[in-house]
Amino acid sequence: MDTKNILFICGGAFVGLEKCISDRQHDSSIGFGAPVRASMRTGKLTEDLVTSSMLENVESGDLITYGLIPEFVGRCPILVSLSALDEDQLVQVLTKPKNALGKQYKKMLRMNDVELHFTENALRMIARKAMKKNTGARGLRSILENILTEAMFEVPESNSIKAVLVDEEAVGSVDASGCGAKILCDVDELTQCSKSEIMRNLKVNDMVAGNEGRLSNGVEFPSVAIRL
């Protein structure tokens, strides 16, 4: 079979490969003088960024040390590593694509004439929680599910709910869960939320386009609550 025009791409997570690279480079990760641990201890680098940085130096010998047979590694002449997603990129995953997670949940709630609103701080906290779990973009859905579960059950059962708000208080912190999405039955409730300290200094997210500032019934809401 002629394979001259066939491109084979082999990919994987290769968990622990950075240890093989570190051993080859003789980089110690033990002691107060260790560069990796020292940087992480001062908060300059996260574990994901350290791993991504080390994987940039991967060589064929590292894959063999990792456990792949030389005959297989020899058929992969080009090695490329991918960097971990940062906070801004995870926020883009939540909002930018045509089928972004935020837009999916917004559409589901809109089927019941309920609008879903996110604050910018909430989106960034969701991204930080995903980074903390080291699950990348895959972890965003589980985080959103935990935040919106109660609202998803309550909305179909009630005709009085006007909006669902996800702010920083609803998301919580990196290490702790929040109170969950806030179910609003009155436009005034959204106005009151906008006056809280959490949302006071938020700006409308530039990536959001459409009928910002209005609920489905045409009533205006504060611009500090952003929509996907």
From TrEMBL:
Transmembrane segments: none
Classification via InterPro entries: ATP-dep_Clp_protease_ClpX, Clp_ATPase_C, P-loop_NTPase
Domain called Clp ATPase C-terminal: residue spans: 85-175
Alphabetically ordered keywords of this record: ATP-binding, Nucleotide-binding
UniProt GO molecular function: ATP binding
Gene3D superfamilies in UniProt: 1.10.8.60, P-loop containing nucleotide triphosphate hydrolases
Coiled-coil regions listed in the entry: none
Protein name per UniProt: Clp ATPase C-terminal domain-containing protein
Organism the protein comes from: Cucumis sativus
